[in-house]
């Protein structure tokens, strides 16, 4: 049985059966095969047309068409109900999960809750897992944010998620939303006054969310008011930014150490999760970077100070956690120096880059990557490569108003390309969400310039180019960044201009990863998309 709801726009929302429906659609669209082969695209009129239009490609071996017709013609039991409001949908969702296989407790806390705290936890958790998406996701994109125990090209491999990769949380706990509980715990203690800070247990988290297993209990806990007041005081965006900055510092430290957090803490395998030790280190870094306004200057020293010297925080006394945080801050402070919070070295670009790569899974038209702007084994900036970036930016921009897109230079399309550059220039790449982050250092080496001079060279070329309008040049240049992520510089070009932009007097759009020139007949539609009908 599949349960669907119709919203006010006549669209269907899947309430129950999303994974089953996605499995059926994924099989038909050639994403996986049965023992006897792939679905035969010649067995349905729709798939025949999609095959001829090259939307789908038949993979081999394929199942006999007669068998596939039987599969396609199998009637699915579907129940549809009209939903007047979002609350109606959420109430039905909660009710159907009250029997059978229950939701995890953290999932029940989040369902139907719309508070600053719940929204922050939901957003940050999605960013770190890699399943970040719009609030409304098309079924065809669902598998792109699904977590899998297998390394599939269309899903998120569970071993690549930070929590699992670093040994803080195991596979099973991720599926029970233990990572969201960890973030809720860390965020709460990051912003609450010391006298109001919480312990990591179900009762404390229930109170922060205002959740009660008794549906008749309408009482608002004091803790729920306190956490949302704290968010109002700090600012919702500031809370998220502080978390991302500190998280990036920890990720970069682990990258430099080439160890997991579990290895650094020398924690035994018998301890299932390391959320509390992680929180202690997180709050120590927060104390140094946010409160004391310091900058990490040596990630190797940061890792060295922790490695083998802080195993005592595993199983430490919760009543003395404040003292433990202070002790860890003192232990690692030699790796930090006084600095500005917007220094690229402590900015949140390691996590921000991961977020951009994650979003590109389901919104390909808004993202593009280039390994560099200097040809392999070349010795000067290639104007054609820069022009290709500018052309792509105009095409991304023309997707419509109110949308931001990116071109990132320093990310390779394939690991094969990244290996070539690594062998030629001696700079190791880092795999970030299945994409090789190479940085732009190899370009700077090739043209014998440092990063600052190379950045200046690129900006000067853009200033002098004649292929894009002057106003759009300024838009691109003012938003261009050269941040550090995982110890490597990148060029980040962002576009969110408020009107259509031509390239060499022609207009372009992105179709998947391709840039397509619009015909004269298509251009009025482009402008209507921005300005509406007269």
Major sheet: order of its strands? 2-1-3
Terminal CA distance = 47 Å
In DSSP terms, counting alpha (H) and pi (I) runs of 4 or more, how many helices?
Answer: 23
Strand content: 5-15%
Assign the structural class, choosing from mainly alpha, mainly beta, alpha/beta, alpha+beta, or little secondary structure: mainly alpha
Instruction: Find the count of extended strands (DSSP E, 2+ residues).
Output: 16
Helix content: 40-55%
Give the overall form.
globular
Major β-sheet profile: 3 strands, mixed
Mean pLDDT across all amino acids: 84
Radius of gyration: 25 Å
Oligomer: single chain
What are the segments in which pLDDT stays under 50 over at least 5 consecutive residues?
341-347
Explain this structure.
The chain has 534 residues and is mainly alpha-helical. It contains 23 helices and 16 strands. It has helices at residues 18-28, 45-52, 65-72, 86-96, 105-110, 116-129, 162-165, 171-175, 178-191, 202-209, 222-234, 236-257, 261-265, 275-291, 299-306, 321-332, 349-359, 383-397, 415-425, 441-446, 451-464, 470-479, 523-531; strands at residues 2-6, 12-16, 78-82, 147-148, 156-157, 294-296, 336-338, 367-370, 405-409, 430-432, 435-437, 484-485, 488-489, 491-495, 508-511, 514-517. The strands form seven sheets. A three-stranded mixed sheet has the order 2-1-3, with helices on one face. It has a three-stranded mixed sheet with strand order 8-9-14, with helices on both faces. A two-stranded parallel ribbon has the order 4-5. β15 (508-511) and β16 form a beta hairpin. Mean pLDDT is 84; it is low at 341-347.
């Amino acid at each position: 049985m599949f349960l669907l709801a119709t919203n006010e726009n006549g669209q269907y929302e899947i309430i129950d059966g999303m994974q089953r429906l996605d499995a059926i659609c994924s099989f038909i669209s050639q994403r996986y095969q049965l023992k006897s082969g792939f679905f035969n695209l010649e067995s349905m009129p729709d798939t025949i047309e999609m095959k001829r239009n090259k939307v789908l490609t038949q993979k081999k071996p394929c199942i006999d068409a007669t068998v596939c017709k039987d599969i396609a013609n199998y009637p699915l039991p579907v129940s549809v109900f009209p939903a007047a409001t979002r609350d109606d949908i959420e109430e039905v969702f909660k009710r159907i999960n009250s029997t059978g296989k229950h939701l995890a407790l953290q999932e029940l806390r989040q369902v139907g809750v719309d508070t600053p705290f719940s929204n922050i936890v939901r957003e940050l958790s999605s960013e770190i897992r890699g399943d970040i998406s719009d609030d409304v996701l098309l079924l065809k994109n669902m598998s792109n944010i699904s977590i899998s125990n297998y390394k599939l090209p269309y899903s998120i491999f569970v071993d690549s998620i930070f929590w699992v990769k670093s040994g803080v949380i195991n596979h099973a706990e991720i599926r029970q939303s233990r990572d969201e509980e960890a973030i809720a715990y860390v965020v709460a203690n990051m912003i609450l006054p010391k006298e109001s800070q919480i312990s990591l247990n179900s009762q404390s988290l229930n109170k922060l969310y205002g959740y009660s297993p008794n549906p008749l209990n309408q009482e608002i806990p004091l803790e729920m008011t306190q956490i949302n007041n704290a968010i109002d005081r700090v600012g919702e965006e500031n809370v998220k930014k502080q978390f991302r900055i500190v998280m990036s510092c920890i990720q970069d430290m682990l990258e430099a150490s080439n160890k997991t957090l579990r290895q650094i803490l020398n924690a035994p395998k018998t301890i299932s999760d390391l959320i509390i030790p992680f929180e202690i280190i997180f709050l120590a870094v927060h104390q140094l970077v946010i409160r004391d306004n310091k900058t990490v200057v040596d990630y190797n020293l940061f890792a060295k100070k922790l490695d083998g010297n802080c195993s005592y925080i595993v199983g430490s006394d919760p009543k003395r956690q404040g003292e433990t945080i202070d002790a860890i801050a003192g232990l690692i402070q030699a790796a930090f120096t006084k600095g500005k919070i917007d220094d690229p070295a402590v900015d949140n670009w390691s996590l921000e880059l991961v977020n951009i790569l994650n979003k590109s899974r389901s919104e390909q038209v808004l993202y593009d990557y280039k390994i560099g702007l200097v040809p392999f084994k070349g010795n000067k900036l290639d104007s054609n490569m820069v022009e290709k970036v500018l052309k792509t930016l105009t095409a991304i921009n023309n997707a419509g108003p109110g949308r931001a897109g990116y071109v990132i230079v320093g990310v390779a399309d394939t690991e094969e390309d990244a290996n070539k550059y690594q062998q030629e220039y001696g700079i190791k790449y880092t795999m970030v969400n299945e994409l090789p982050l190479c940085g732009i250092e190899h370009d700077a080496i090739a043209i014998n310039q440092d990063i600052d001079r190379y950045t200046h060279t690129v900006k000067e070329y853009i200033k002098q180019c004649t292929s894009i309008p002057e106003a759009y040049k300024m838009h691109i240049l003012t938003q261009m960044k050269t941040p550090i992520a995982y110890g490597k510089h990148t060029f980040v070009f962002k576009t969110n201009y408020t009107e259509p932009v031509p390239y060499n007097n022609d207009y372009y759009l992105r179709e998947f990863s391709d840039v397509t020139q619009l015909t004269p007949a298509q251009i009025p539609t482009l402008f209507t998309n921005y300005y509406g009908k007269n």
